[in-house]
Amino acid sequence: MITDVALQFVKQNKGLKKVEKEHYSSPRISSEFIDCSLPLTFDQYNYCSYGCLYCFAYYFKTNNPSLKNHLQLKSVNLDYVCSLLQGKLKEDRYYQHFISKRFVWHWGGLADPFCNFEKTNKDGLKIIELLAKLKYPTLFSLKGDALLQKEFLEIFKQSAPNKNFAFQFSIITADDEVAKYIEIGVPSTTKRLQMMKTLSDMGYYTILRLRPYIIGITNKSIKRLLQQAKEAGANAVSMEFFALDIRSNIGMKERYKHISQLCGFDIERYYKILSPPERGGYRRLNRRVKEPYVKEVYKFCKENGLLFACSDPDFKELNMTGSCCGLPEQYPNNPELTNFSRNQLTYALKELRKRYWSSGGKDKYLSVSDVFFETKYVDWLFDNSLYRDACVCKTSLQTGAVVNTNYKVQFLRDWNNLASPRCPYNYFHGKIKPTNRKDKEGNFIYEYVPHEYEFEWHKEGLL
Amino acid sequence: MKLTEWIKKPKINIQDKVKTLTEKHISRGMSEAEARALAEMQLLKPKKLDDLDYLQHKSNLYNAITFYFKSKSDFELVMRYFKVSDYLGYNTHDTDLLIKLLKKLDAGEIKVDN
């Protein structure tokens, strides 16, 4: 049974100590930077102690030949990370582009900051102490309950007046019994909601990270979950649907079978038939399948004063904030928590939808200059060295080409390449569409495509 | 069939169609989850971007004008575009239905009244 394998993995990880001589390299830049408000992402360990069967990081790690059969727990170089945050490394690119500008430190991209590894090794604790001392704006993405240990709670209590920390709790079902069959070894939903309440009560900004939304599982208890999150003080909900990678190895196939049993139908077939092929092998269901589920969450948020955020490429335009993780655009309690990038397509699509509807459909065009309008967090996009060292998705480029490439160049390459799954036309599946016009630099100008649901939702007063 | 007759026929929302088909599958002995998934696979297949282009070309004007219907000139523009005299009963933004209508109009299977 795949659950037994996952449970064995979790048990092996309990009390596991990191290796001393080797380090894990973090922070890094997210490969999803084209529509990500928090491209600077950090993990203190190279993997997570939990056994969630939907984990996207599992795919990357099990297909990485260098990790096969010799997976060792590595931690970041603490001296480096602390020096970086303290501003002792003035020449460091992460310092220059992000830390010096107090860019939000997004912690928990590929692992969990408060999983069992942290209980044993406590490397994260040292960094959290420093972040608290520096009052540095930080967003944690977590499920782990190391956070409830005395030393962590003490820091968060003391820092509460500063409000420099925010927390997003990943939860996919209100049902503890269901959760334990898919999130192996993870604290129950009830416990995660209790943690959310504890931090909300301290005055922190908290987010329900409704990801991955699995049709067949999440929808069964979504009403209860949203209500419980509201009662636990959530300020926002950030949702994204489960995506199924067709390049699966045997382990992934086993996981899909198990999830299928929980859903009550074959998810591989479901995703094969209902996902647009233009997006490539990382299958995402089409809009029409997702619409009723999105509507339910959006409506709840609107009626209850929570921010709705959507990381899914479909319905990105509905975001109530330019950060699809759910950080607000304005936060008087600590304005530094709004220090995220607006130079990305989540922000651009959200603004474009508003422009389109408020102008009666006349203001409908999107140029590159509309995406890259902000000057505060833009330098990193033009830094060739940063791209060379930090970008992990450049295997299609020859060495010579990498030297002359940066994130902006990569963005433009995809923007103008209609054959690429990362082209906005394909990625957003027709939500914006290239026109026959180009800007001065020869880049496509896109136009907004209103969908049927927008007309209906307008009539219902939802938009 | 004349367009006015076609318009008067009751139209069913796609999500309602999914619900109806799900119930049908359940009555044949399927579990609710399986039935719903099968109905979705039958009715909610992704649109090809080519189809979306077609729809956009034909229906954006239709959608935009019916939604923002404000002036007589807008109304006349719609009249000229669809070459119809009575379409106001048609009040859905169901993509499938709209593509069907537009393709039937293009093929001459549905005739305009005037």
Can you give a write-up of this model?
- The termini of chain A are far apart.
- Chain A contains 20 helices and 17 strands.
- With 463 residues, chain A is an alpha/beta fold.
- Chain A has 2 domains: 2-338, Aldolase class I (TIM Barrel), CATH 3.20.20; 345-460, no CATH class.
- In chain A, 40% of the residues lie in helices and 14% in strands.
- With 114 residues, chain B is an all-alpha fold.
- Chain B has one domain (3-107).
- Chain B contains 6 helices and no strands.
- Chain B has helices spanning 3-8, 14-27, 32-43, 49-67, 72-82, 95-107.
- In chain B, α2 crosses α3 (32-43) and α4 (49-67) crosses α6 (95-107).
- The longest helix of chain B has 19 residues, at 49-67.
- The two termini of chain B are 13 Å apart.
- The model of chain B is unreliable at 64-72 and 74-95 (pLDDT under 50).
- Chain A binds chain B through residues 216, 263-266, 269-270, 273-278, 286, 288-289, 291-292, 360-361, 425-426, 429-430, 433, 449-450, 452-453, 455-456, 458, and chain B through 14-15, 31-34, 36-38, 40-41, 44-49, 52-53, 56, 60, 63-64, 67-68, 93-95.
Class derived from helix and strand content of chain B: mainly alpha
- State the CATH superfamily name of the largest domain in chain A: Aldolase class I
Counted up, domains of chain B total 1
CATH class of the largest domain in chain A: Alpha Beta
Within the largest sheet of chain A, what's the order of strands?
A: 2-3-6-7-8-10-11-14
> What profile does the largest beta sheet of chain B have?
none
Q: What is the rounded Rg of chain B?
A: 17 Å
Helix content, binned percent of chain A? 25-40%
Quick one: biggest sheet of chain A? Answer: 8 strands, mixed
- The ordered H/E elements of chain B are HHHHHH
Share in helix of chain B: 55-70%
Give Rg of chain A in angstroms: 21 Å
The rough form of chain B would be described as elongated
Q: Given the structure, what is the number of helices of chain B?
A: 6
Which stretches of chain A are low in confidence, meaning pLDDT under 50 for 5 or more residues running?
A: none
| Distinct helical segment count of chain A | 20
The class by helix and strand makeup of chain A works out as alpha/beta
The total tally of domains of chain A equals 2
Biggest interface between chains: A-B, 32 and 28 residues
Number of strands of chain B: 0
